[in-house]
Amino acid sequence: MSQNFRLKNIGLINRDKKISFKFNGKSYFGYEGDTIASALLANGVHLIGRSFKYHRPRGFFGSGVDEPYAIVQLYRNGESVANIKTTEQELFEGLEATSVNCWPNVNFDIGAINNFLKIFLPAGFYYKTFMWPKSFWHKVYEPFIRKAAGFGVASTKHDKERYEHKYEYCDLLVAGSGPSGLASTYAAAKNGARVILAEDKPRFGGTLLTSEVNIGNQTGKEWAESIIAELKEMPNVIIKNRSQVFGYYDHNMLVMSERISDHLPKTKKYSPKERLWYIRAKEVIISSGSIERPLIFGNNDTPGVILSSAAKEYLKVYGVLVGKKPLIFTNNDSGYETAVEFKKNGVDPVILDTRKNPKSEIINEAKNLDIDIKFSYVVVAAKGYKKVRSAEIAKISEDKKELSIIENINCDCICVSGFWTPTIHLASQSGNKTKFNKDIDAFVPGQSKQEETTVGSANGIFTLEETLKNSFDMGYELSKKITKNDNKISVPSVVEKKSTEHDKFWCVPLPKGKNYKRFLDFQNDVAVSDVEIALKEGYRSIEHVKRYTTLGMATDQGKTSNLNGLQLVSNIENKIVPEIGHTTFRPPYTPVTIGAIVGREVGKHSKPTRKSPIHKWHNESNAVFVDAGVWVRPRYYKQGNETLFEGSKREATNVRKNVGVCDVTTLGKIDIKGPDAAELLNRVYTNAWLKLPVGKARYGVMLREDGIVMDDGTTTRISENHYHMTTTTAQAANVLSHLEYYIQVVWPELNVNVVSTTEQWAGAAIAGPNSRKLLQKLFPNLDVSNEGLPFMGYTEGNLFGIFARIFRISFSGELAYEVNVGSDNGNFMWKKIIEIGKEFEIQPYGTEALSTLRIEMGHVAGSELDGRTIPYDNSLEGLVSKKKDFIGKRSLNRKAFTVEDRQKVVGVVPIDKKTSIPEGSHLVKDANAKLPNPKLGYISASCWSVEHDNPFSLAILRDGKNMIGQKLFALSPLKNKSIAVEIVSSHYVDPKGERVRS
Amino acid sequence: MLHIKCPHCGMRSQNEFAYGGDASVKRPELNKEISDLEWDNFVYLRKSLRGKHLELWQHISGCRQWFKVQRDTATHEIFKTLKANEDI
Ligand SMILES: [Zn+2]
Fold first, then answer.
1. What is the pTM of this model?
2. Of A192, A488, A558, B85, which has the fewest Cβ atoms less than 10 A away?
């Protein structure tokens, strides 16, 4: 298609580089430096989508982040992205975009029937209509809303792109590179401050790119370019374009999203798609500018109605005419600047000014250019469905209530200017108490809460001269405070046209007998009449009005609609705007991709992966791995086509019959040293520790102060003042913090210290009747007899030249040892054990067999010590000292903990000796009782007992002590199972504990 | 994200720290007879106040020291940080 609306000699685009792209399947071309919006407008395309509620035709309204309509589904490099603003998205070769909110296509949209039924879709429509009957919600209403509403479609594919996070510190962060941002950055940088300057758009300079002003002896644009060129060379300055500072958080932490690759056909190798910057700034300058406000009139959402500033930007930056017969509708001088630009480029505009007789330089210029200006005139309604064809205009009375001389005027676009709204989001997010400025009918920042200063039009200052002076001063003052330097730059002289006062009038009344829709929120289709209904129905708080009407709740967060909504409420309520107050500004200022927020923490990088030093051997030996907290552990070592059930059964049986070896490196290990080490253990554990001899280990249970079991494990006295504590894999970090808390905060008088040694030692548990014979071969010079190394004994040995710690402890209920060597030698140790163990029929076993062994011998673990049980519940009451005090002891007196029928761990066997009981099943007396069926307990862990060759489970059961021999039912509604069971002792294997002592 | 001054290491971001609750709570002495109410207050009852709050934090990804922070719970302003054995 030809570019009928592109001018020849104006704009900042690169005409040497043509770029072809597709919109709704049709091919177009634009130039490098175009956005989708400017390229489509150059091709005369104004119809971009359909509106949210009424499916009315939608065009372009803005030229940047404020755009409420022109949202598309974007296709880039095989990926699809939803809700892309065409006014922000730069063109790249091969770009494809499609309209959203329309079916079957943008020109013929079935949903547009809503438009003709709009009498049925007033404010609160969703609340009122989709309420009853309740059963309809699920089947009828929700699917309907989902199909009819919403914008783009989120991709369900895995995102192959890479996103990065970056942390940065600086003296000064400047958000926005318009005149105020450039001036303050320059002044601060010249004074030695470390400055970050962030610009949302691809081009630096903000309004200097489109204004007819002079700074010093340069045009505004030239000045901006020279400042940027100089800043780029300064080592203390980071300047970033395509970077939006979207959130202002506590302690001067700001977050910025940098779109590194979104303007390219595909992301470059070794480059991320987007980067999220966490910036801790000593001072922040907010130079985020202002956004033009719409004027409200009938059908003001018709494609072709556009902000006057946007029309000017399309013209001056992109060389694009938004129309060839423009109507400018303004209540202030800004509209004249746009009119003058049209005129200079050979297009004759008509200006409708709501003011009666304003006088200023720019108005004179327009008059001198012979531009047709009608004062005290308004647009009553736009005419045309998919594009503006004409406008109904009228003279308005002085009190702005009466319309007269209503007539039609031909035009192909209506450029509106309702004055300016400062962009105060960042200031407000920082906690700044914003205030209403009556002179500009808008909120501006007030008292700062954090180290933030707002300058330029974001602060309600609309003359360039004052903006520059103020911004140079601020850059200098703030940098001086930090750097103590005193290098002040003189403020350049400014030539600009002075403007006169704006008109407070912004909403055109309806002519008699007409009910044109006048839209406030263009993205959510909220009209003046919706707000009127909300107020009529009794909504008063602006927060309630917002939610009831959805005003300002769309993805543009009401950038063009909030203030007009407030004005309307204040008009109807006869209050002034500050009494109404504005709704809360919440980050992000503009949408941020989930990818950027998540960064690199996806898939296997979402948490650290910890592997034991023996991991490689496990992998080569066909181990099937399982996540155990952050560790990766072998679940079983697969032989042939073995299932988990078969493999773990084989491994556990071999432990009971011969000998097995298990990698227990992951157990938490804490070194405890100092003269008061024993005293610490005595206070932390429930049992007595003061008399444990050197060379002995002891099992211990520790509680929280509320009496609940926190963790268990063995601790060994290595030497006089040196202990080695083990914790469960899961609780290792918590136990360390727990000990540190008591040592540092509660009992600082104790002379003892703790340090984690989990990573320092590799551990192998050798368990089974053959384990002593194997140990003897591993340590030929050591006395490992039952007398030499008794149960719970400790010794040190030499494993083929390597120092080893040997503990005679057992988790499996068998005769067992645990050998520890330095992590670097873990692999060596493991290979030696496997090699020498061959003659004793050794097999490695994984966590599944480990569980089986501990469950059938009734050894409680994480599934019983689940943060809800006390020692008694786990049959550990024998380990609770009556003589000494310890952490959590006082809580054990609690009534609920001492009741007669207190829950206790029991064993559970299915009567049929065949059906495995799902973990989490409920134990009940009567399987067929009426619901809710009283629950007596729950299954905490299940296994296939290799000793008895039938299923066996552990359960926490009310009055467990007196329930042995009872017949109950295990119900698992999730698995739809009801199993008749018998309650037995939790010690299903070797109840007297003879094997471990053999 | 808060910016917290560890009394041992200096200014660090919040993600290096773990919150540890009210620093004004004192654990009853060991082996001391106390009422159920007193023990209950110690274990369960905490003020959820708005305003200045003295609390414990631990520099878990740093020096691992527990220390005290005086912070405004509404504004997050941090007035002072102290070593565990220092009093405000
Ligand atoms: Zn520290």
1. 0.89
2. B85
